[in-house]
Write the structure tokens for this entry.
Amino acid sequence: MGDKESVVYIKNAMDAEFDSFWEKVSCYAAKTFPFEERCEFVKKAKDCNQTVLVLPYMKILACDLNCVNAFEEIVFFTMFVGFCFVLLVLLIHVCDKYYSPTLKSVSKFLRMNEHLAGVTLLAFGNSSADMFSNLAGIRDDGPVFGNTLAGALFVSMVSGGLICYISPFKMNAYESVRDILFLILGANLLSYFLETDSHVSQTEFIIMYLVYLFYIIVNVADVYLIRRALKTTNRQIDELHIALLQWSPEKRKRLSELEKQQGAYTRDVEVEIFEKTQSGPNINKIRFTTSRMAKTRRVTLNRNTTRIILLSDMHGKNWGIWKDFFLALRPIKCAKWQKADLLQRALMLIQLPGVFLCSIYIPLVNYELDKHGWNKLLNCLQVMLNPALSIIVIKAFLVSTTGKSLWYTNITEGYKYAIYSLAFTVPFAIFMFVQSRTDVPPFYHSALTALNLSGSMIMIFVCATEIDKAMEVIGFIMGVDNDFMGATVKASTGYLGHIIANMSMALHGYPKMAYASAIGGPFFTLVLSTSLVLHIKTRLFNNITPSNQFGNYGENAFIFLNLGLFLTLLWSTTLGFFARRSVGIFGIVLYSIYLIFAMLIHWNIIHSFSNDAAVKAGFGDI
């Protein structure tokens, strides 16, 4: 017999599919494996590294905690929910102590009014993290447009409703109507592009970009026109006062009208920083909901007074430097602890590690505080630590998106870039220490707002996104439909940063800025972020269709969003643009009705507004 001929095996498409199995398989497919085999699966699947922000929940469940049954899963889920609550408390602390005061300072420095600051600074600060998160998950198959519509509905109705309930205010009539109409235009325009072309082309993306650019130009021009109108009104009032000898009832009436216009223009011309109030709204009483809010007089803050309040020529440049340093690092104040009840003390203990981390990482710039929050030794350390830590964390997160390893194993790779930053920050820190005093902030103290904003935005992004990731893991393990999670739970948890930041600004006395962000933030996300993601998906994958981008709940969110915005126009014009507490409850109730519809659809009790998917053959051309 002759020698057997060697057989060369040629790989087919199925072999290639198995070769790339661990690169493509979803981490949540581990749920289909027995408990004892899940750990090995999680270690091999790259998606288990890519979907991690801070904690690798799937690895913790399968390997570290060695979960062996469904009951243990539920017990460990309570631990994850508790961790989410800690992050939520930390998120509130960052927004209240660091983010909101700095936004007021930057708005004042740029001479913006409340509305312009809300639709630009606050809206961009809240929404930019969402854009980067969507770009990082560009390969996900979820309904991007449908989830964005659900998020826009949550922010505009719930966040806007809570602002109206906590801090009722007189809306800027023209600006509010304009913003709502722009949001309606953006949602319907992007929906039209998807329905007609089944994708977002380069031309359509440019159109969406120009719409947002026009929106910003209109808002900036509006502030300019207000200032021109104020100058004209002031000149006319001066001319009437000069003509006192020829006084008449007509001139008195005209003067009264001009003074009324002057007051309205003055309130909208520029952000004012007010003195801090010690008392907040009492929401425990029923009449808080039904009665009209009484006007409270706010006193404009004299920034120079708070700046030099502790300045003394009798003190040296480093007088009390160590005392100030350790008092600033103190996570719990003794006086506040003594006045707190049991629940408040528990919250203080829960947020203690996060508060300490923020004290080291984020410089405090707050014109309402003595010395504007200046702390010589601590600020010198923060100038060096803040950029270095930011670079290390961002670099580690970017590397982890490749799926090769978890983020905390990549910290050493970003370490050298942090060392490079010290070449710039150490000389500046030394200059600060030599030149400045402990009892008065230097003239360049306001420059630390850049570090404050970057640090605050990173902390807000990490806290809000980690809560969203934890809820996503719990939903998948419990077998909840991904489409339903995106339209309900993730639409809420993914936009927690928006709602906390907006509520914080409202509680600080700037409800106009907060409400402008509640409309301008979703507009930014819809018009720029979502259109960019859909355009990139079109260029890379070319698998964009209206059905897979709306999902099963997108049409419902689209209808409720338009309905909510039109009803907002209705009640605002009916009530003379006075945002009452009752309309805040109305917005929250409307979103609750949307949730009821979504749950009924999820339980197959009613049909959604979306079209049924076309039936396709499982095999062959039938």
Q: What stands out?
A: The CA atoms of residues 436 and 443 lie 9 Å apart. The longest strand covers residues 169-170.
